[in-house]
Design a protein that fits this description.
The protein contains 4 helices and 44 strands. 7% of the residues lie in helices and 47% in strands. InterPro entries: C-type_lectin-like, C-type_lectin-like/link_sf, CTDL_fold, IgGFc-bd_N.
Length: 555
């Protein structure tokens, strides 16, 4: 007789996470190709599973081919990849892998640094809205420019417009339309890109929208935009597609004099904060001021329609994470030379359960975000790569470092749903056989499959298991991987996890040494002790893969 196979996704992904097996990206020009300082281009590639094969290609040529034996972070140096010319070229970086990985890009020239989470191709889209903000007034206030002198010597005000890099993410021809929202009306430019080709478009202050026939990646970039004290540094900002926009955001505790807000939407949208509402039109270039209430009262920002909300500061664009896209676990890469910190936002009632790696976060100084259920803290990062996660509450994590100016943004989302087991990478697979056998035979049956008897050691896992068993619409009794020690009478799980949770039926546990789960439609899926020789259905489970710590190497 064939077994009944039931797969339960414990991760229960509610939104896009940042791991995958295919990625495309590019390295925009940093300052200038002739700038008298060495250029460093790197990818941080994180593998989660043993013997993961990774291939990196550029211009149809394999530049790196790796097989990584364990869970680790590999820093890969990339050479001759900077995109410093306009037009179509083949400098697309293509990363493929045999198992799920994450990719993080770093561009450094002198103290001009930009980092980006590279989204997997499955998270790319065919419609992007471009945050083409008017940076002029902001730059003038930062640097006290003599505007009368500038106006008398030039017919054009200071130009802080940005270039666009568009990458065809597929091995197909990609028909692309780029819309500029000019004062005289919309201007649409059509482009055809061959497989994995990219194009860099010259600077424009009016970029509005990019649409494509197949998936594309879009990077907004300026090689040298004014920063504080008449400095300049690069911006390279990877856009997210419109289907990842949101309606509610929490403004982080940023200094009001150094930051502005920018709303991107393809419809007229109202942005509300406390009692203040601003209406933003599609294609608006206006940077919004630091709205009243962000510092002292309720910093919740709401939009009347799905939007992308960015925080703009000198040389930095940070996409705010919508509250419905907070995650259970983030991977953080940080440069130990840049005084890196993680900005963490978590529900106040759950703040003391925040985990970093294998331990509860210590040394935190949580500050309540007034008018919300959340608190925040800037947490110094003790090592270059670390996992920040929460067992029960979705969180937001941003990571920032400082060189000449600050850089950073949202951390790498690993799973969307909190899990008390940890930062779970692989959904549990449960297999329910319809052949009854003893507990010992059931344990051997599972072991022969490389599995163990199911061990729902948290209420969270029990609820997931119960919901999936309920979908079978059947009745029966199955073995769990829980057994009483005959000598000590202690309960032990087959998975060697602590026994901290039970879902006993009435008048249980009784005298039996082994434990079963009662399966019935709309039941409570309670547990009962049984004689270990009793015939029950084996309920097997694969082992969890949990992300905790890494080894690190440079390639």
């Amino acid at each position: 007789m064939l077994p009944i196979v039931l797969i339960i996704s414990i991760l229960s992904q509610g939104h896009a996470t940042d791991y995958g097996t295919e990625f495309v990206t590019a390295f925009p020009e940093n300052l200038a190709y002739y700038f008298p300082s060495a250029l460093s281009l790197q990818l941080k590639i994180t593998t989660f599973f043993p013997n993961t094969a990774v291939t990196i290609k550029m211009n149809d040529t394999i530049i790196h081919s790796l097989t990584l034996p364990s869970s680790q972070v590999s820093t890969v140096n990339i050479y001759n990849a900077e995109v410093n010319q306009l037009g179509i070229c083949r400098n697309t970086i293509i990363v493929t892998s045999s198992q799920n990985i994450t990719v993080f890009s770093i561009s450094r020239r002198g103290d001009s640094v930009q980092t980006n989470v590279v989204p997997p191709t499955v998270n790319l889209g065919m419609k992007y809205l471009v945050p083409a903000f008017n940076y002029t007034d902001f730059a003038v206030k930062m640097n006290s420019y003599n505007m009368s002198g500038i106006l008398s010597s030039s017919t054009n005000l200071l130009d802080f417009s940005s270039r666009l890099i568009i990458i065809n993410a597929r091995a197909d021809v990609n028909n692309i339309a780029v819309t500029e929202k000019l004062p005289t009306g919309d201007k649409v430019t059509t482009i055809t890109l061959g497989p994995f080709a990219l194009i860099q478009l010259s600077s424009s202050a009016y970029w509005y929208k990019v649409t494509s026939s197949v998936e594309a990646a879009v990077i907004l970039t300026n090689p040298c935009i004014d920063s504080v004290s008449c400095r300049c540094n690069m911006i390279a900002h990877q856009l997210r597609p419109t289907d990842l926009m949101g309606n509610e955001f929490i403004f982080p505790p940023f200094n009001e004099t150094s930051y502005r807000l920018f709303v991107t939407s393809d419809e007229s949208v109202d942005l509300s904060c406390n009692t203040v509402t601003k209406t933003v039109q599609p294609g608006s270039q206006d940077l919004l001021p630091y709205l009243p209430g962000l510092a002292s009262t309720n910093p919740i920002l709401k939009t009347s329609k799905p939007s992308s909300l960015s925080v703009i500061s000198p040389g930095l664009i940070v996409n705010l994470i919508p509250t419905d896209k907070f995650s259970g676990c983030f991977l953080v890469h940080a440069n130990s030379l840049a005084q890196p910190k993680a900005l963490v936002i978590v529900e106040t009632a759950q703040q003391n359960s925040l985990q970093i790696g294998n331990s509860v976060a210590t040394g935190t100084s949580w500050e309540v975000i007034s008018g919300t259920k959340y608190s925040w803290d800037f947490i110094p990062l003790p090592q270059s790569s670390v996992v920040i996660w929460h067992p029960t509450s979705p969180i937001a994590v941003y990571v920032f470092g400082g060189a000449g100016t600050d850089y950073g943004g949202p951390a790498i989302s690993i799973n969307s749903e909190p899990d008390p087991n940890g930062c779970v990478l692989v959904p549990l697979k449960f297999e329910l056989s319809n052949i009854t056998m003893s507990w010992q035979s059931s344990q051997s049956h599972c072991k022969n499959k490389g599995e163990v008897l199911a061990s729902p050691n948290f209420n969270y896992t029990q609820n997931k298991l119960a919901a999936a068993l309920n979908d079978l619409n059947m009745e029966g009794v199955a073995w769990l991987g829980l057994r009483r020690n005959l000598v000590t009478s202690e309960w032990n799980w087959s998975r060697s996890v602590p026994f901290d949770f039970a879902n006993w039926d009435n008048n249980q546990p009784a005298g039996g040494l082994c434990v079963s789960i009662i399966i019935e439609p709309n039941g409570n899926f309670t547990w009962s002790t049984m004689r270990c020789c009793s015939p029950m259905l084996p309920l097997c489970s694969s082992e969890m893969v949990i992300l905790t710590t890494f080894t690190e190497n440079i390639i």
